Automatic annotation (TrEMBL):
SUPFAM superfamilies: Composite domain of metallo-dependent hydrolases (SSF51338), Metallo-dependent hydrolases (SSF51556). The gene is sdeB. The keyword Amino-acid biosynthesis does not apply. GO terms for cellular component: cytosol. This is N-formimino-L-glutamate deiminase. It comes from the Bacteria. Transmembrane segments: none annotated. GO terms for molecular function: deaminase activity; metal ion binding. It comes from Croceicoccus pelagius. Residues 2-33 form the Formimidoylglutamate deiminase N-terminal domain. Keywords: Hydrolase, Metal-binding, Zinc. Residues 44-423 form the Amidohydrolase-related domain.
Amino acid sequence: MHFAKALLPEGWRSQVSITLADGLIKTVEPDAQLPIGAEHYGVAIPGMPNLHSHAFQRAMAGLAEYRSSDGDDFWSWRDLMYRLAGTIDPDQLRKVAAMAQIEMLESGFTRVGEFHYLHHDVSGGRFGNLAEMSNAIFAAAWQTGIAVTHLPVFYAHGGFNGAPPTEAQARFVCDLDEFSHLLERCREGAADLPDAVVGLAPHSLRAVTPQELSALEELAGDGPIHIHIAEQVREVADCRAALGTTPVRWLLDNARVGSRWCLVHATHVDVGEVSDMAGSGAVVGLCPVTEANLGDGIFPAQAFMEAGGRFGIGSDSNVRIDMAEELRVLEYGQRLHLQARNIMTSKKFMSNGRSLLECALHGGWHALGLDGGIRPGASADLVALREDVLVCGAQRDDALIDHLIFSAGSRAIDSVWRRGRLVVSGGRHVMRDQVEGEYRAVLKALIA
């Protein structure tokens, strides 16, 4: 393949030829003439990792925006989500997940971290294969081509201090022995997916005890560990009452939090926690569109960046799936909070868009257990942008990314390759018609 411009690890280069072998990048040659027979494209950037997704929640996108008589918040939304979680079966999950994955690929995400807690059947009974629901995620990934970092969730309790789970949480719940077997089945199920990664996820401090958390660290081996940590003010208050301190502080003081950890929704944190999270090497998982939709709050991202912290982005509830919009909403939230502009820049990148993109790429890759980029040896996960949509000819090449994030959005996405396979062409996934038809039939049944 040949690109007019490409964002390489060393920066922007022009007239870049790329050769592939077995889905990996074999060579990258800047300042190259168009090879005979090569396909020519506009601007290439690396595919973005989506570090936090609940695929099944795509089925309720747009269906929770009607105000109840008692008012609405995260907890009332969760009640609605539980109704969906208690209904969807493995085949329906496969079709909903495929739709979500197609929209991810069309917006420039090429790998998804699936934070997966639907383990059992609709009554809470056990499938013959404990990984039946996880296998639905893997089957969707085979169909759509997206890369998967699968994060089976350990969920044992309905609240702090080992409170019993509710009936609505029956599909989520495992003990440690059962979860160990589930993890083995997930690793087997993911083995045939190209460069799949399997980690694990203690759901939250309210869903696991300190003893269980310690055991999970051992079960993870070298894999990534993700956790919901401080999304809601009530969650922080409940943690103080139960454990005597905040969730982030307790975790940093009592677990071996390091570079393989991803702290998702670390929204409500103090100055000391911001500094210590950055120092731990953990990645903070930010889901700006979902966090705005649920009224979670605004993470102090500027202070975290200045402390040397790493972050990535995720589509979480999948209420809207759009890579550029996640980055834009992240920046705009900071602007509204701080009443200033161009917040998420750095000494290295004065372009707001370039800084956001680079931080989310590297943080996301790390959180999902692999490295990426347009370089020899990496998976050929590439996104080609349309030159006719972007502002070209500007003095700064980084203006291409600024325009992608803050103006053009996903309409600037032309083609996407995942491990060398063309999965999006002309901005549209090659399997969209079939998958969307199946998805709409499932959605009609679920709503009924």
